[in-house]
Amino acid sequence: MITRFIYSLHLRERITWKIKRFYPNVSDKNVTVVFDKKLKFDLLKTDVGHQSIIFNGFYELELTNKILKIAKLWEGVMVDVGANYGYFSCLWASQNPQNKVYAFEASPMNVNPLKNNVDKIIYQNQSQWCPLLLVKKKEN
Questions:
Q1: Residues with Cβ within 8 Å of residue 29, at least 6 apart in sequence
Q2: Average pLDDT, the chain
């Protein structure tokens, strides 16, 4: 993507929102992130947050930096409620093999993409994940 060549990540983030309409056919499969080139995500290019990852290589820069810093320094557990497609969960797990993640996603539409992205990181660094899906059946 053309914006990936802009070094200042804050500048990259601002420019992206101005020029993204000129690039409607970007790939949303196997998208890499700036901070860990081994991570590859399958995303949804119509989702605004995913567009940030596709064009910039990150989402919410300040939060991403804080999570990466903590994940590298200390092993621990992340509870990701509303995990979406697993961006923060996968970043956390990829930084330290001792890190654990409990990722919860309520939207049935996001469960398979989340599992797909998680499966990719399990293969890469042998992380252990315990799939859990809580569903309340709709009563008629």
A1: 42, 43
A2: 85
Q: Read off the pLDDT of residues 41-67 as tens digits, 9 standing for 90 and up.
A: 999 999 999 999 999 999 999 999 999
Instruction: Report domain extents, the chain.
Output: 2-125
Which one-letter amino acid corresponds to residue 123? Y
> What letter would DSSP give residue 7?
S
Two structure tokens written together for 19? 């020029």
The DSSP H or E segment spanning 97 is none
Q: What is the residue whose two structure tokens read 């330290």? A: 96
Q: 5 and 55 in contact (C-beta within 8 Å)?
A: no
d(CA 113, CA 105): 11
Q: Which of 51, 54, 45, 104 is nearest to 80 (CA)?
A: 104
- Entry pTM: 0.84
d(CA 77, CA 63): 17
Q: Which two tokens stand for residue 134?
A: 């809580």
